[in-house]
Amino acid sequence: MAVISPKADVISPAGLADDVRVGPFTHVGPDVTVEAGTVVHNNVTLTGRTRIGSGCELFPGCVVGCAPAGAAPGGRCVIGDGNTVREHVIVEAGESPDSPGTVLGSNNLLMVGCQVAHDAHLGDEGLFANFTRIERHARIEEFVRTSGFTVVRPHATVGAYAFTTGYARIDTDAPPYAIMQGFPSRPRAVNTENLRRCGFDADTIARIKAAFRALFDGRDGFPEADRLAAVERDFADAPVRRLVESVRLAAASPTGRRLEPAEAG
Q1: 82: phi > 0 → left, psi -120 to 50 → alpha, else beta; which?
Q2: 119 Cβ contact list (under 8 Å, min separation 6)
Q3: What structural domains does the chain harbor?
Q4: Which of 72, 199, 211, 222 is deepest in the core (most CB within 10 A)?
Q5: What does the pLDDT look like over 240-253, one tens digit per residue?
Q6: What is the pLDDT of residues 34-89, one digit of tens each?
Q7: Whole-angstrom Cα distance, residue 138 to residue 131?
Q8: DSSP characters for the chain?
Q9: Contact yes or no for 28/34 (Cβ under 8 A)
Q10: pTM given for the model
Q11: Which residues contact 173 (CB under 8 A, 6 or more apart)?
Q12: How far is the C-alpha of 29 from the C-alpha of 48, rounded, in Å?
């Protein structure tokens, strides 16, 4: 059975897998489930309709599954496997029982003081530096890295393998593979080192960089449709097609928020 400190407040121990460990002064609400191998340290709060995956570690002072300010309880919060949630991180639940809920993928690291607002979706393998704030309904794709005090504004998407510099503010969608800098931010370069570490070969990286030069030539705003079409024609490989499609979807929304095809109607 789970190893629960006698000083912890676990409302429903049946929701914990057999080898879960819970430290003192931690509160685990009645609708929380925690899967195998997860360690919940002291002074953690897990509440709401929350599921914590296997092999996670939650550090003192973090709060997961709380209802957003002014909202009724009952929203969902789903944390995938292998996540590390450091001290004083806050992950809100969904805004309502009918909302999509807040979702974290697998193998993410949320460093000290990060905040994930309601109904945000984070992919896998992300590294989020101290005090990164991901606001409501934002979307973070896989292998994203942020620097300290990054803010991702509501409904914005940060594309896969992107990197944000310190104090960057992502107001509109950030394309995949980009280094984003500024307040508000803009693409500055290709995140070459992260691509190398994630297994992209030199030829693929060179094509991505060439596509960036064609799309982002120092002018603000999204590239024109003819430039997108030209890059799509000149580069047939999948990573560049992903870049072009993400920029096209972002430009289709007046707010810069990426609209998936079903949403764009």
Answers
A1: left
A2: 75, 94, 95, 99, 100, 101, 102, 136, 137
A3: 3-137 (2.160.10.10)
A4: 211
A5: 999 999 999 888 87
A6: 999 999 999 999 999 999 999 999 999 999 999 999 888 899 999 999 999 999 99
A7: 16
A8: --EE-TTSEES-GGGB-TT-EE-TT-EE-TT-EE-TT-EE-TT-EE-SEEEE-TT-EE-TT-EEEEPPTTPPS--EEEE-TT-EE-TT-EEE--SSTTS--EEE-SS-EE-TT-EE-TT-EE-SS-EE-TT-EE-TT-EE-TT-EE-TT-EE-TT-EE-TT-EE-TT-EE-SPBPTTEEEEETTEEEEEE-HHHHHHTT--HHHHHHHHHHHHHH-SS-SSPPPHHHHHHHHHH--SHHHHHHHHHHHHHHTSTT-----HHHH-
A9: yes
A10: 0.93
A11: 156, 157, 158, 159, 246, 247, 249, 250, 256, 257, 258
A12: 7
For 72, the token pair is: 């009724």
Would you state the structure tokens that stand for residue 109, as one six-digit string? Answer: 């690291």
Token code pair at residue 122: 């984070």
